[in-house]
Amino acid sequence: MTDNELDQKRAAAARTFDVRRVIGGLFTVYGVIITAVGVFDGQEEIAKAEGVRINLWMGLGMLALGLLFLAWQWLRPAETPESPAQEQ
């Protein structure tokens, strides 16, 4: 393997395991699920929350936060750590 191929694999691994991707993905998926639950809440669930559609609002908040993390990861990608051979 050449140095260029190793650098490309290292960059791909850094992007794959970026914690912003994991957090953003989880918040986005859970946000979609909670928002869908909130849209279909019945009167009993809304009455429990004193008239607030809490599932809808929290789902939208989680969705926005997840998309914010994913946008951050996309706009400012992780930098690849330098290999030990390059540091010398």
Could you explain how this protein is built, in words?
This protein has 88 residues and is mostly helical. It has a domain at 21-74. Helix content is 76%, strand content 0%. The protein has 5 helices and no strands. It has helices at 3-16, 19-39, 43-48, 54-75, 84-87. The protein is rod-shaped. It starts with a helix and ends with a helix. The model has no long low-confidence stretch (mean pLDDT 86).
Nearest-integer average pLDDT? 86
Class by alpha and beta content:
mainly alpha
N to C succession of SSEs: HHHHH
Q: Tell me the β content.
A: under 5%
First-last Cα distance: 20 Å
Tell how many strands the DSSP assignment holds: 0
Shape: rod-shaped
Q: What is the count of DSSP helices, taking H or I runs of 4+ residues?
A: 5
Largest sheet: none
Task: State the helicity in percent bands.
Answer: over 70%
Radius of gyration: 20 Å
Summarize the structure.
The chain is 76% helix and 0% strand. With 88 residues, it is mainly alpha-helical. The protein has a domain at 21-74.
Any descriptors?
88 residues, mainly alpha, 5 helices, rod-shaped, transmembrane helix, transmembrane, membrane, ABC-type branched-subunit amino acid transport system permease subunit
